């Protein structure tokens, strides 16, 4: 049986995991608590950023994080604004880390 966590529970766990290793993270847009999609913006504090979205990999059957947008922070923000304009349930989290750490590849957050 594959039980999925509600979005708000996953977000809470992700925020806690980042804070445990002292990586600042902020909820910049709160979406639907039960089933909202999550986008994670990684701000490297040098004017650049990446946005990640989770997608289903048909080959492996797993859900994985992939880059939705990357480049200047301004361009990434524009992409996030566009996504939010047609998904009212969307969550956007912003991770700030000069080293580029986001922990999305951490198996404890799967």
UniProtKB/TrEMBL annotation:
It holds the Pfam family DUF1491. Gene3D superfamilies: Protein of unknown function (DUF1491). It comes from the Bacteria. This is GTP-binding protein Era.
């Amino acid at each position: 049986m594959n039980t999925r966590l509600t979005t708000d529970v996953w977000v809470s766990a992700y925020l806690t995991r980042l804070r445990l290793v002292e990586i600042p993270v902020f909820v910049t847009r709160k979406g639907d608590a039960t089933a909202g999609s999550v986008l994670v913006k990684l701000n490297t504090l040098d004017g650049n950023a990446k946005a990640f979205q989770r997608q289903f990999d048909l080959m492996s059957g797993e859900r994985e994080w992939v880059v939705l947008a990357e480049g200047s922070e301004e361009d990434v923000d524009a992409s996030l604004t566009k996504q939010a304009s047609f998904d009212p349930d969307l969550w956007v989290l912003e991770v700030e880390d000069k080293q580029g750490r986001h922990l999305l590849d951490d198996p404890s957050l799967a």
